[in-house]
Design goal:
Layout (H helix, E strand, L loop, with lengths): L3 H21 L2 H4 L2 H28 L6 H34 L4 H4 L2 H23 L17 H4 L2 H39 L16 H31 L4 H23 L1
Helix pairs in contact: 1-3, 1-10, 3-4, 3-6, 3-10, 4-6, 4-8, 4-9, 8-9, 9-10
Amino acid sequence: MNYVGLVVGLLIALSSLLPCLAIGTSRSLRRRPMFQLLLHLASSGVLFGLLTALSGLLRLLHVPLPVPLCQTLLAGQTAVGLASMAALAAVSVERYVAVEHGLRYFELMTPARLRLLHGAVPAVSALSLLVHATDRAPGALRPPDGVQCYYLDFWSDQLEQIHLGFGVTLVTFIMVLNLLVGARGIEQDRRIRRQRGGMLVAHQRPGSAGDHKALYAVLRLSVFSIALQMPHFCISTLHFVTGKEMLAARRLAGAIRLLMFLLNGSLFGY
């Protein structure tokens, strides 16, 4: 089963590469704020997939890694994973402005504020790397021979708690925003259909409140991302509350989280 990480990592990278190419080669898409932010999300998926594939390849070849190199690889995977969630949060903010304040969209979503949303993604990654740099995990004291680079062996409980807090905060923020956006979007959709006899407005501005196809795409991404992370959050919380290791359950929850990146890329490609 050592090949699983390699195969899954390559699938994640390839599935996320499709939207990167689609957005990167389309001038009209590159001009739209939502797709600019989605490019962050897709790029994070590609990088996360490549790092996962690299880790799987090292396991497949039974290549022993020095502990510092292993910790660096794990820190990179974690930072990119959090960047992906931060990008989804940024997309959710943009969609909230589009739906809740459609008539003032371009007044509120100024270039400076859009740059802040873009900058938030690498900022979250940098903060994650900083936290990793200050961690003193039990695995750091182990000899380098036969290191398999699994995060549960190289994260201290304190580091895991910090990342759990990061994850829960981002997911809660994304969930609240998308609940508001979803409710308002459905209400506006029904109102438009009634006023136009079941026909949507023919001409809409990019990023306008009527852009419901993009809205529902982001909602689907958010729902699946949150659902696939919930087992990790619940099991990690039980681990800290009860003090039990629960290694098998925690590893299973970690594997389910990988499906999030694979599914995100597939939804992008679709």
